[in-house]
Design goal:
It is a single chain. 28% of the residues are buried. The protein is globular, with a radius of gyration of 17 Å. The mean pLDDT is 94. By secondary structure, the protein is mostly helical. It has two domains: 73 residues, no CATH class; 80 residues. 62% of the residues lie in helices and 0% in strands.
Length: 178
Amino acid sequence: MLESKEFLHLPLTRLESLVSEIRATAAPQQAWEALRDFSVGKMQTQEIGVIERVRWGKLALETISKKREAEYIDTAKQVAESARVRSYLIKEFGPADDDATRSPEDLSRYVIDNIETDCATASEMSAHWRELEPSQMLPLRRIKNMLTPLQDIHPYLASHSKLNNELKEWLELIPKLP
């Protein structure tokens, strides 16, 4: 079913069921990409209700997970794509205590925990990134892609929390990264 664009005409409830039931490798990467793009577009559609838009955002997150599960993308790409969707949901609809998808704390921790180096090392490397080989530069670019969406949700964190301080340190690196 996901091998064609027919899914674009299915109701949200049917798509949610289909995505939750289908094996990640049962659909080609292009189908997951198309469904993710379609879901993000629906999530951003002002003319539909908030609850439905949040459901579209969650469907986008599930398709991103399926892409990773099928090994069409690596973890860094999954984290960056998920962070963009989740930060949009938080920025647009506010944080929600009963929904981890819209938790600024959970999102911040998820991103930081998936950065494969510490902040001090990333900072050292960023000081001379122009001198690095492309293969050495790529991890820094991926860090930037993962962190950039957190700029929008940083104000939602408790101002003197340990997580806020840690995130602030990471966010200060963004302008220095390739």
